[in-house]
Write a structure and sequence with these properties.
- There is one protein chain.
- 29% of the residues lie in helices and 24% in strands.
Length: 367
């Protein structure tokens, strides 16, 4: 595809096959040009040890950036919007991270990125054979959290009504940290009862829920019967699912319902769907989304990329016209896998949380 100007490549959709390195170079020109960049990045540029417009020549050079995501805890939202949008900037949402290890970090979602994110999620769900027009039940955090929005848009893109139940993972984590396990159990009961009312009265074709809730459903005979009898696909996400649990849920608990993993986070500004093909006995693999989301699996001690097949810390870079979040060290570890054809960076398998971040224990709770 030919673009009229260097910046026009930033309008490329996930199916356009744009060269990732060309896209990254165009993004550097956009985000660090005084006429188009955001106040945050233009102010931050002078404190970088390199010039992004000349030194970042492709995906691999995103590692030149330090991890600056801690600064997103305090940056005014307006300072994150590139001035190149002018008065045409359509701010759809402000999302923030879960606040597991400190104050939440905030990001903005503009209309063009929302469109690209929805398109790539929709395409991968269709690759998995998800039914169109089916009703969804999504049990996930909404409000400032990204995941609920991604799932609701996915339901809409497949032409189905999206029923939803909100959850508050921050409150549950506080309860867990305080040792108030009885209140955690009561809150989980509250979520399950809301699910029961919908599952037993509505024709739900797609169920999206977290691993802890799916495990809880397995202990409820009426819900287990209903899900296996009518639900045509389960999307799990939010927290990790270890291989043994995945195999058990796929083969014994929900043997007739395909389980499809979803991996995402706020700094990614989208979600990745597991690779089509491998069965429950094989690792669940998540591919990056060129040219927007790049993954690296590195040694937490050296920052160097680990060998394929080895476990390391996941580093995520988001590059788009609306946001630049490079070289973000996530609170996840994973096994490095070669990416699918056409994707740049690493794919990841067997994603799991790190036990601590900066001395703070990572608590997953119901999410």
């Amino acid at each position: 595809m030919t673009y009229e100007s260097p910046a026009a490549v930033l309008d490329a959709g996930p199916s356009d096959g744009v060269d990732p390195d060309e896209f990254v170079r165009a993004a550097m020109r956009w985000h660090f040009d005084p006429a188009t960049g955001s106040r945050y990045w233009l102010d931050r540029a002078d404190r970088l040890a390199f010039d992004p417009r000349s030194d970042v020549k492709g995906v691999d050079d995103l590692s030149l950036f330090p991890d600056l995501t801690d600064e997103l805890r305090d940056v005014p939202v307006a300072d994150l919007i590139p001035r190149g949008y002018g008065s045409g900037a359509r701010l759809v949402n402000v999302f923030d991270s879960g606040g597991t290890t400190g104050a939440p970090k905030r990001v903005v979602q503009l209309a063009d990125w929302m469109r690209h994110s929805t398109e790539q999620v929709d395409r991968r769900l269709r690759d998995h054979g998800l039914p169109t027009g089916a009703q969804w039940l999504t049990v996930a955090p909404t409000g400032p959290h990204l995941v609920g929005d991604v799932l609701q848009r996915a339901a809409g893109s497949l032409g189905g009504p999206g029923l939803s139940i909100d959850m508050d993972p921050r409150w549950v984590r506080k309860l867990v940290a305080a040792g108030r396990s009885d209140e955690v159990e009561s809150y989980t009961d509250h979520l399950v009862e809301q699910c029961r009312r919908i599952l037993l009265t509505q024709d739900i074709g797609v169920l999206a829920a977290t691993t802890p809730l799916l495990e809880r459903f397995a202990n409820e005979d009426d819900l287990l019967e209903r899900i296996n009898g009518s639900v045509r696909a389960i999307i799990w996400g939010g927290t990790h699912m270890d291989p043994d649990t995945r195999h058990l849920l796929s083969t014994d608990v929900f043997p007739d319902v395909p389980l499809i993993g979803m991996y995402g986070n706020t700094m990614m500004l989208t979600a990745l769907l597991e690779r089509v093909g491998p069965d429950a006995s094989q690792p669940c693999v998540f591919d990056p989304v060129s040219p927007y989301v790049f993954l690296s699996v590195v040694s937490p001690d050296t920052g160097e990329r680990v060998e394929v097949g080895e476990r390391g810390q996941v580093v995520v870079s988001h590059v788009s016209r609306s946001m630049l979040i490079p070289n973000n060290a996530e609170r996840d570890t994973a096994v490095r896998v070669r990416p699918a054809d056409g994707q740049a960076g690493d794919a990841v398998a067997d994603v799991a949380p790190v036990p601590t971040v900066k001395g703070e224990t990572v608590i997953e709770g119901v999410y």
